[in-house]
Every structure is written in C-alpha cells, then in structure tokens.
Amino acid sequence: MNDNELEPDPVVYIVIGRVWEDEDASPENAIEIHALLTAPEDDDAVRKTLESLSSQGFAEAELDQIGVMDGEPDDPVYEGAYQDALAGNVAIV
Length: 93
Known about the structure:
The protein is α+β, with helices and mostly antiparallel strands. The chain has helices spanning 42-55, 76-86, and strands spanning 12-20, 31-38, 60-68, 91-92. Strands 3-1-2-4 form a 4-stranded antiparallel sheet.
C-alpha cells in the first residue's frame, strides 16, 4: 500500500428486526431491535447479529431489513452504538 493511499472507512450496517426471549412467545411480546455493526458483506452482518442476539439470551429473532449507514447518525440514541460498531462490536439498540 502506498503511504498516500487512505484506508477506506469500514462499512457500518444497520439490521432491523424483532426478538423474543422465549421460543413460544406471541408476536405481541416481540422486542424491536436495531443492530449496528461492521462486516465485510451483508451475509456476515446478519450472521454476526444473530450470534450476538443468541449470546444475549434471545431465543428467536426475525430480521426484517438490512442497510448501510451513510455516515455518523444525527440521532443521539445511535451515536454510541455507531462508535461501538466502528470499534468492532455489535451494538444493539
């Protein structure tokens, strides 16, 4: 790599879905989540999100949308999560 070339910014994905703590829970008991994370591809982002949710004790998950963040969010709710994602963590909001 040439010293004049800059590393590209990491891609921060946002994954939106619902989770349940119990496999037999009704749809009304779902918790909406937004996960922010970095990954090389969207398939990796989905896999990392599901692994993170499982490790946090969620029994079921339905992921509805995946997208790429277009820069740092303006909403203060997501600012910390965005920084966590840049640090290599899966941030669940």
